[in-house]
Design goal:
single chain; 128 residues; mainly beta; seven-stranded mixed beta sheet; four-stranded antiparallel beta sheet
């Protein structure tokens, strides 16, 4: 059974930074996406990365501020978030897709997959 465990959430001031981590069993075999759900809103993709790490995708909300990367020492997929804004407040989830395709990151972040594997989320609050 695939397990994903998110960590790293917390309270941060506007303009601050946080790094979220997604620990994944079977780390090497899955493309991973970070998604978020703000209060009263639907869950949305944020950033995605292929199993090889060679391709990434970002939604407009994340471009230029967030970076997704695979940490092979920790066996995690991390989301470095800089210049956080109030509207980044949400529960952040990671999800996995078993796919060798280098297009998977793009397609995950375009919501083209029905994803079966999710973590339980980590809460990020941006507030002054």
């Amino acid at each position: 059974q695939l397990q994903l465990v998110e960590s790293g959430g917390g309270l941060v001031q506007p303009g601050g930074s946080l790094t979220l981590s997604c620990a994944v069993s079977g780390f090497e075999r899955y493309s991973i996406g970070w998604f978020r759900q703000a209060p009263g809103k639907e869950r949305e993709p944020v950033a995605c990365i292929t199993s090889t790490g060679r391709n990434t995708a970002y939604t407009d909300a994340a471009k230029g501020r967030f970076t997704i990367f695979r940490d092979r020492d920790k066996m995690t997929v991390d989301l470095q978030m800089n210049n956080l804004k109030l509207e980044d407040t949400a529960v952040y989830y990671c999800a996995a897709e078993f796919s060798p395709l280098e297009t998977t990151a793009r397609d995950m972040c375009a919501d083209k997959y029905v994803l079966d594997y999710w973590g339980e989320g980590t809460s990020v609050t941006v507030s002054s």
